[in-house]
């Protein structure tokens, strides 16, 4: 792919070695990786992976902004600096959204005309995958922030997920254009009146339509989006556990479960939250991806591979072009 990804190995629940194993998988598929973390814990790596010894982590700091400013030797800060200085093309973090956002803003910096970066997550829904943003970067937003998130999400859906001319909706408590907070109503008016030839604005949707296939991109504030995402993840896991329990509840159920096992395995894989690789931090001058700390090597490899795909598809450039064409850039 000709892409180098800087990866912060600190912050993963299973430790830096698990992140390194994910980096090795991505390297085997052609992505160069610069891995920042404690070399002692990472151990030996194969071709395509370079280890930069950076044992200091700010992943668990209560004040990530202060920590990113005062700890230039921290692994996430060094990885972000490598992207800013052109030594890598994208940033992947093994966890700690706050630290990644702070390091990204200080080192990589916001893209031209962007109010605030947003976190976008492709939610794996069988038959109708949807991109949800913001999922945690901005607890409070203004209407112009939601408008920019709509363009960011549409660019991500088109570039990484291959959804040509995505359908974009606002998450609200009613489908009518007059429902929702004042910010949501105003954002809907702006999107309805704006020029966005690269996506279709389909109005408001309610929470029960998140997985209904009505929209490809769903826009909300980071507080609501984070709650919605975790509810969906929890329900998905409960469904998988419930099906597994029902399939082993009796001899007859076990016989039926054996017949259904291939289909159930495919269903489990389709809703696996590790498949999308994590949340994309959009609105910086270069791309950043924040994986979940509980991911296994598979999830970290997906984060690196999808970051490389976004670089090859010029996600940052396409996002800026869409924002500019729609008159949504900050003046």
CATH architecture of the largest domain: 3-Layer(aba) Sandwich
Q: What fraction, in percent, of the residue positions are helical?
A: 40-55%
Order of helices and strands: EHEHEHHEHEEHEHEEHHEEHH
Multimer state:
single chain
Per DSSP, what share of the residues sits in E-state strands of 2 or more residues? Answer: 15-25%
Secondary-structure-based class equals alpha/beta
Unreliable stretches (pLDDT < 50, length at least 5) are: none
Computed CA radius of gyration, to the nearest angstrom? 20 Å
**Taking all residues together, what is the mean pLDDT?**
88
Shape: globular
Largest sheet: 11 strands, mixed
Task: Kindly report the CATH topology of the largest domain.
Answer: Isopropylmalate Dehydrogenase
Total count of domains: 2
Structure, explained:
Helix content is 45%, strand content 16%. The chain is α/β, with parallel strands linked by helices. It folds into two domains: 1-114 and 283-314, 3-Layer(aba) Sandwich (Isopropylmalate Dehydrogenase), CATH 3.40.718.10; 123-272, Isopropylmalate Dehydrogenase (3-Layer(aba) Sandwich), CATH 3.40.718. The longest helix is centred in the C-terminal third of the chain and has 26 residues, at 222-247. The radius of gyration is 20 Å and the shape is globular. The two termini are 35 Å apart.
Features:
331 residues, alpha/beta, Isopropylmalate Dehydrogenase, eleven-stranded mixed beta sheet, 11 helices
């Amino acid at each position: 792919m000709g892409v180098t990804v800087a990866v912060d190995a600190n912050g993963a629940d299973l430790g830096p070695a698990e992140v390194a194993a994910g980096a090795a998988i991505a390297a085997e598929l052609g992505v160069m990786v610069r891995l920042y973390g404690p070399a002692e814990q990472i151990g030996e790596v194969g071709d395509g992976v370079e280890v930069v010894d950076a044992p200091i982590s700010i992943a668990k700091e209560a004040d990530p902004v202060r920590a990113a400013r005062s700890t230039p030797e921290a692994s996430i800060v060094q990885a972000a600096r490598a992207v800013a200085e052109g030594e890598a093309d994208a940033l992947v973090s093994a966890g700690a959204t706050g630290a990644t956002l702070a390091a990204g803003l200080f080192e990589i910096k916001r893209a031209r005309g962007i109010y605030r970066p947003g976190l976008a997550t492709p939610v794996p829904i069988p038959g109708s995958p949807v991109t949800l943003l913001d999922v945690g970067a901005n607890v409070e937003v203004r209407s112009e922030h939601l408008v920019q998130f709509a363009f960011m999400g549409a660019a991500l859906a088109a570039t990484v997920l291959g959804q040509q001319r995505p359908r974009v909706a606002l998450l609200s408590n009613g489908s009518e254009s007059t429902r929702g907070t004042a910010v949501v109503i105003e954002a809907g008016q702006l999107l309805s009146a704006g020029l966005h030839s690269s996506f279709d604005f389909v109005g408001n949707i309610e929470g029960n339509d998140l997985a209904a296939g009505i929209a490809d991109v769903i826009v909300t504030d980071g507080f609501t989006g984070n709650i919605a995402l975790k509810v969906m993840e929890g329900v998905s896991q409960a469904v998988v556990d419930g099906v597994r329990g029902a399939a082993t509840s009796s001899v007859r159920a076990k016989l039926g479960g054996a017949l259904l096992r291939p289909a159930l395995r495919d269903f489990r894989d389709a809703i696996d939250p590790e498949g999308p690789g994590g949340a994309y931090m959009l609105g910086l001058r270069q791309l950043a991806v924040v994986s979940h700390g509980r991911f296994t090597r598979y999830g970290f490899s997906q984060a690196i591979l999808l970051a490389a795909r976004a670089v090859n598809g010029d996600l940052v450039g396409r996002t800026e072009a869409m924002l500019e064409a729609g008159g949504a850039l900050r003046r």
